[in-house]
User: Which sequence fits this backbone?
């Protein structure tokens, strides 16, 4: 009834065709305000700028959140120039709707709001770094898993707690470890015995349904991609702590006679790096899609992304409102700040929750 009254009053002073035009503008503006325009990430890699250093910056991982601002965790040897530690930065990823300008840059002012029973979720994860990093060893391939009930913090997706996985050579070889703040505060990391061997084991990642854990290992001389089935417990922490449902197996489709490393899974896509023949030189980035109950034959990302130098440790994410997906990787190509730098690039879309 209120809308009818407003239209009736307006029609007394505004001709009908002008009233129609006014209402169409009003409703189109409201519609435009709540619907994202489709945008595209650049398909040529872009250096992440101030996040990088003159040292090696690599092995990134996303905190599983929604929104335009997110924590970015990665390994770097900037502290000593030798051993790698995991550090965190805050990354802005957004498109300015007024002018179409894409912004992907470090945010030096935002610290994330309250969560995790009233504490700052970023502060909690920073506390995890105190237990993850060790004085003289290399901590690589961080993976942050949300645990428990999901809830919204402003525009970010939070959880009751987190499980942080990584690998470290603190015992003389790379082993996979995890720590969590689900039951208590983050504590000393525990070795993932089901995955570890006498050789180097690193870069854990889970399938979307958390039924299988993938990682890379040189237990058969070169690095290959392996996996095993996790228990069917409800929570991811319990799955990691319970006896596995199967032994460790090599994925013969993903693996080659050369080094295949750094797997990362999100939705129906698995990305990794390999120095197999047929690439563009050094380590190249490859992807495989989950089809008919298995991973399809890997495909090279092509020379728009790969170079004759090394491309390493890819991670991927979907952002709502963008036509393609977002990938961060590290490369020692010329033009960076030195050593390995982090880069971002747009890749074909894939099926994954936002």
Assistant:
């Amino acid at each position: 009834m209120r809308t009818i009254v407003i239209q009736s009053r307006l029609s007394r002073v505004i001709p009908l065709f002008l009233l129609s035009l006014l209402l169409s503008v009003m409703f189109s503006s409201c519609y435009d305000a709540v619907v994202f325009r489709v945008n595209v990430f650049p398909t040529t890699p872009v250096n992440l700028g101030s996040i990088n250093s003159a040292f090696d910056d690599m092995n990134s991982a996303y905190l599983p959140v929604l929104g335009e601002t997110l924590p970015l965790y990665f390994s770097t040897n900037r502290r000593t120039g030798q051993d790698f530690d995991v550090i965190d930065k805050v990354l802005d990823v957004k498109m300015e709707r007024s002018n179409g300008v894409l912004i992907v840059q470090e945010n030096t002012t935002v610290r994330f709001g309250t969560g995790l029973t009233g504490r700052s979720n970023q502060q909690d994860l920073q506390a995890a770094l105190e237990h993850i990093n060790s004085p003289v060893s290399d901590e690589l391939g961080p993976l942050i898993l949300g645990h428990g009930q999901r809830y919204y913090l402003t525009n970010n997706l939070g959880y009751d707690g987190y499980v942080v996985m990584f690998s470290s050579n603190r015992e003389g070889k790379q082993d996979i470890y995890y720590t969590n703040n689900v039951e208590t505060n983050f504590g000393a990391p525990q070795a993932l015995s089901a995955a570890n061997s006498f050789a180097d084991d690193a870069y854990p990642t889970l399938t979307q349904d958390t039924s299988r854990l993938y990682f890379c290992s040189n237990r058969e001389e070169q690095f290959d991609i392996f996996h095993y089935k996790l228990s069917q417990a409800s929570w991811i922490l319990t799955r990691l702590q319970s006896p596995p449902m199967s032994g460790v197996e090599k994925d013969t489709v993903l693996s080659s006679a050369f080094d295949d490393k750094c797997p990362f899974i999100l939705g129906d896509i698995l990305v990794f790096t390999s120095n197999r023949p047929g690439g563009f030189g050094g380590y190249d980035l490859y992807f495989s899609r989950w089809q008919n109950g298995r991973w399809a034959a890997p495909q090279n990302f092509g020379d728009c992304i790969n170079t004759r130098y090394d491309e390493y440790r890819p991670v991927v994410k979907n952002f709502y409102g963008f036509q393609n997906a977002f990938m961060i990787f590290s490369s020692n190509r010329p033009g960076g700040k030195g050593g390995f730098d982090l880069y971002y690039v747009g890749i074909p879309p894939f099926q994954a929750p936002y």
